Amino acid sequence: MRLLSLLFVLLVCLIQTASGYRRNDIYLECGKMGGACKHQKTHGCSILPAECKSRHKHCCRL
């Protein structure tokens, strides 16, 4: 019973770790595309099709 509970905890930790890495890949994509997350009121930049953590920012090419 003790081994079963330890395996369950390990499985939960692995699932959370794997989903966390997948979620952060979306935000790192902006940097990989040569851009940076800037506020929406930034003028004179071309917007890239990548996501930023904040909904008030967009991926802007530097």
Automatic annotation (TrEMBL):
Q: Name one GO biological process term.
A: cell chemotaxis
Q: List where in the cell it is found.
A: Secreted
GO cellular component term of the entry, any: extracellular space
What keyword terms does UniProt attach to this protein? Secreted, Signal
- Residues of the signal sequence? 1-20
Could you state a single Gene Ontology molecular function term? CCR6 chemokine receptor binding
Keyword match Nucleotide-binding: no
Source organism, top-level taxon: Eukaryota
- Family annotation (PANTHER family): BETA-DEFENSIN, BETA-DEFENSIN 33
Q: What is this protein called?
A: Beta-defensin 33
The major lineage groups are: Eukaryota, Metazoa, Chordata, Craniata, Vertebrata
